[in-house]
Amino acid sequence: QALDLQREILGIRHPHTLAAMQNLAVTLKSQGDLAGAADMMRQALDLQREILGIRHPHTLAAMQNLAVTLKSQGDLAGAAEMMRQALD
After folding, report:
1. How far apart are CA 55 and CA 59, in angstroms?
2. Among 8, 20, 25, 51, which is disulfide-ready with 41 (CB 3.0 to 4.6 Å)?
3. Which sign does the torsion angle of CA 15, 19, 20, 22 carry?
4. Cα dist. 80→5, 26, 69, 73 in Å?
5. In sequence order, which ranges of 1-88 are alpha helices (DSSP H)?
6. Which residues contact 72 (CB under 8 A, 6 or more apart)?
């Protein structure tokens, strides 16, 4: 609900909305919904890359979070690629 309100009031491109998306993704992961978490992380990451840029600390943290989630899903190749992108 909080994310929906932020999207409505602040817009999808607002930094607080992006942070809420990442927070929801982390919550989904902690609840065991790895697929839902990865999907939300990808959505947020795509927007962060576009809005904040690839070198912004929040974008880099989002990349690392997604890499950890991919690893938890057993996607070691995807996790390694995401970490490489974060480190480049």
Report:
1. 7
2. 25
3. positive
4. 34, 19, 11, 13
5. 2-9, 15-30, 34-51, 57-72, 76-87
6. 29, 34
CB atoms within 10 A of CB 12: 15
d(CA 29, CA 36): 8
pLDDT at 88: 86
61 and 69 Cβ atoms separated by less than 8 Å: no
Instruction: Name the DSSP class of 12.
Output: T
Given a cut of 80, whether residue 1 has pLDDT beyond it is no
Report pLDDT digits (tens) over 11-65.
999 989 999 999 999 999 999 999 999 999 999 999 999 999 999 999 999 999 9
Largest CA distance in the chain: 38
pLDDT recorded at residue 2: 80
